[in-house]
Design brief:
The protein is α+β, with helices and mostly antiparallel strands and 425 residues long. 46% of the residues lie in helices and 16% in strands. It has helices at residues 11-23, 44-55, 80-93, 134-149, 154-161, 170-173, 177-194, 200-208, 222-225, 256-265, 267-270, 274-286, 292-301, 332-335, 341-367, 369-397; strands spanning 2-6, 27-33, 65-71, 101-106, 113-119, 212-215, 230-234, 240-246, 304-310, 316-323, 328-331. Strands 1-3-5-4-2 form a 5-stranded antiparallel β-sheet, sandwiched between helices. It has a 3-stranded antiparallel β-sheet with strand order 6-7-8. Strand 10 and strand 11 (328-331) form a beta hairpin. Helix 1 (11-23) packs antiparallel against helix 2 and helix 3 packs antiparallel against helix 4 (134-149).
């Protein structure tokens, strides 16, 4: 078990980090210790309030937060109840047993691990001293818990997590048998002890990254018939070069019998590590690599080494993935139907066809826009033109010219009758 302690400046930031993981379904909140309510019955602000009530009791302390992660080996399958017992025991041993703390189980990595958030301020306002807590209290607690629960020790975990394997330099190793043996032994010993594989081709997939291969020889040969095994150096083109080294002469004894024992024992240990590899492949496929070659290059950037198996005609019939982060090897079909060589080629072709179809659709729509608009404009011009002509004719007809001949009699002024003079007067 590896314990990591950080002292964030903000309790809200530490809590928010874990709660966001829960929202994305990458974590589960297992327990809220020394709270009045269960974790499942509280929202973010209720959890935060439990810490802030204590933090408000001390204005002098600059750091009031404790954030711990307890990390376990990928091969260890630990039930939630056992994780909670380990968390409570650890917090008791480092002096935080009576503090409120919340336990989260994270599920977004290749190894099981939990995060614990707590406050350093006690109910009387005093602060728990965290100076050298990692080297003193945590280190002692970690060793006692490893012993009590039979966990893989931190020293062993950290050794497995170190990359530390250097590829064999074919040019340097070819100067003599002793140099060749030393170079091969370093690589084979590290891969044999650190990587998880369940067949000789998978073992070789991991070795090839470091320019080494385990060779049984030809089927009709003496080495093959006697279940022998030798190790060879590979040059830049993948050709076997230099002096073959017997498996029995290497310190870790990577003979065929011992390899077959390891094949059987690591079958179950590989299972929980599949998801990380599948997720990484899916992520690379989403970037539309376009070809197997580009997919291999993209995966290599994600620390996954890919070995392609091709026949004499160059036809791809198999693919193997070496996940160097979790140090595990998977044949493509073992990850699922969608990860075999044929399925991946099909997915890449389908992706290309989709993007091509989308481009053609975009092209036709963008190319057809202007002619359509021009056609609409011409049609509008045709319809508008006669209207303008008819309107000018109306203007002529309705022009304000005096046309008394057509004026109604009622609108004309009546002539005043002249009075006749009476001549009789």
């Amino acid at each position: 078990m590896v314990a990591k302690i950080t002292i964030p400046k903000s309790i809200e930031a530490a809590l928010n980090y874990n709660e966001k993981k829960v929202q994305k379904r990458n974590a589960v909140c297992l327990h809220a210790a020394n709270y009045l309510n269960e974790a499942k019955d509280m929202n973010f602000y209720q959890k935060l309030n439990g810490f802030e009530q204590l933090n408000s009791l001390n204005d002098r302390a600059t750091t009031k937060t404790l954030h711990v992660s307890l990390n376990f080996d990928p091969s260890e399958k630990i039930a939630d109840e056992k994780l909670l017992k380990i968390a409570e025991l650890y917090m008791n041993k480092i002096g935080f047993g009576e503090q409120p703390f919340i336990v989260y189980k994270h599920e977004d990595a290749g190894h099981p691990h939990i995060h614990i958030v707590s406050t350093t301020i006690k109910s009387d306002g005093s602060r728990i001293n965290t100076h050298n807590i990692g080297r003193n209290q945590s280190e002692k607690a970690r060793k006692e818990i490893e012993q009590q629960y039979g966990l893989i020790k931190a020293e062993r975990q950290q050794q497995l997590m170190k990359p530390g394997i250097k590829p064999v330099d074919a040019q340097k190793a070819l100067y003599g048998k002793s140099e060749t043996k030393r170079s091969i032994s370093n690589v084979v010993g590290a891969v044999f002890s650190q990587y998880k594989f369940t067949s000789l081709p998978e073992f070789n997939a991991a070795l090839k990254k470091f320019n080494v291969i385990a060779d049984r020889g030809k089927e009709e040969g003496r080495i093959y018939k006697n279940r022998g095994l030798v190790y060879r150096i590979l040059d830049a083109d993948g050709n076997k070069v230099g002096v073959p080294i017997k498996a029995s002469s290497i310190g870790c004894k990577p003979i065929l019998d011992n390899l077959e024992k390891k094949f059987a024992s690591t079958e179950v240990a590989k299972e929980p590590l599949k998801q990380r590899t599948k997720n990484t492949i899916d992520e690379c496929l989403q970037s539309s690599p376009g070809s197997i070659k580009n997919l291999v290059a993209t995966l290599n950037q994600k620390n996954i080494y890919t070995v392609l198996r091709q026949n004499a005609e160059g036809r791809l019939y198999g693919i193997t993935f070496v996940d160097n982060q979790n140090k595990v090897v998977f044949n493509g079909s073992d990850l699922g139907k969608g990860y075999s060589a044929a399925a991946l080629q099909s997915r890449l072709v389908t992706g290309n066809e989709k993007s091509l179809t989308q481009d053609e659709t975009k092209g036709s729509s963008s190319a057809g826009t202007k002619p359509k608009e021009i056609g609409q404009q011409k049609h509008q011009e045709k319809t508008i033109t006669p209207i303008v002509k008819s309107e000018s004719l109306l203007d002529i007809l309705l022009s304000t010219k005096e046309q008394f001949d057509n004026t109604p009699s009622g609108l004309l002024k009546k002539k005043r009758k002249k009075k006749r003079k009476n001549h009789d007067l």
